[in-house]
Structure formats: C-alpha cells, structure tokens
C-alpha cells in the first residue's frame, strides 16, 4: 500500500472516531435534558460484572411507573433522586460520560493534527 492510501485511511479513521465521539456525547447530553423534571425513588441495584443497574419507581402523568433509573448506583438506594422523566424511562442527569466522549474527540483530533504535521507531509 502506498503512502497516499495510508494517509487517506488514517484521516478517515481519525475523522470517524472524532465524529462518533461527538455524536455520542451530544446524544447522551440531549437524552438527559429532555423530559419532565421529577423525582424517582431508587429501590434496588444489581451489579453485573462492572456495570450496576438500579431500579425504582416514579410518577409520570399521574401514573406510578417502575423500571430502571439510569445513571444511579447503590449509593442512591432508598433515596429520592432528581431525574428527567419520559414515558419510557427516568434518567438522573450526569454530564460525566458526554464530557469523556468529547474529550476523546478532542484528543483524537489533536493527535491526528500532530500526526499530520509530522508524518503525513513527508
């Protein structure tokens, strides 16, 4: 494979990684901002390998609903947590994962730019 094809492939990979991270972070930030503000009571949590999922209940349009309360952990058991509620889920707002994804995009773009300045121009 010649140098020109390698450069094109590398640029495409960097672009896909960056755009994917930005899209994912934006989707998560958007998903956590829609819905009705409310509270959910976390009733139980279970740990599957490293992931922890917690269940609870909340009121939506006058009806009590039960299900997974996203972005909560075992520290929240028995507590009422502020959530955004839609018809199908309750989610505790947290910008931790969107910030991580944005950081990955920035790092990938920076490393791609450094690569371009040092290797691709040769």
Count all strands and give the number. 5
| Helix content percent band | 40-55%
What profile does the largest beta sheet have?
5 strands, mixed, barrel
Portion of residues in beta strands equals: 25-35%
Strand order of the largest sheet: 1-2-3-5-4
What this model shows, in words?
The model has no long low-confidence stretch (mean pLDDT 90). The protein has 122 residues and is α+β, with helices and mostly antiparallel strands. It has helices at residues 3-31, 96-120, and strands spanning 36-48, 51-60, 63-70, 80-85, 90-91. The protein has 2 domains: 1-32 and 95-122; 35-93, OB fold (Dihydrolipoamide Acetyltransferase, E2P), CATH 2.40.50. It is elongated, with a radius of gyration of 21 Å. The chain has 2 helices and 5 strands. It starts with a helix and ends with a helix. Helix 1 packs antiparallel against helix 2 (96-120). It has a 5-stranded mixed barrel with strand order 1-2-3-5-4.
Give a short overview.
This protein is an alpha+beta fold and 122 residues long.
SSE arrangement:
Layout: H1 3-31, E1 36-48, E2 51-60, E3 63-70, E4 80-85, E5 90-91, H2 96-120
Parallel strand pairs: 3-5
Antiparallel strand pairs: 1-2, 1-4, 2-3, 4-5
Helix pairs in contact: 1-2
Structure characteristics:
membrane; alpha+beta; DUF3592 domain-containing protein; elongated; 2 helices; single chain; 2 domains; transmembrane helix; 5-stranded mixed beta barrel; transmembrane; 122 residues; OB fold (Dihydrolipoamide Acetyltransferase, E2P)
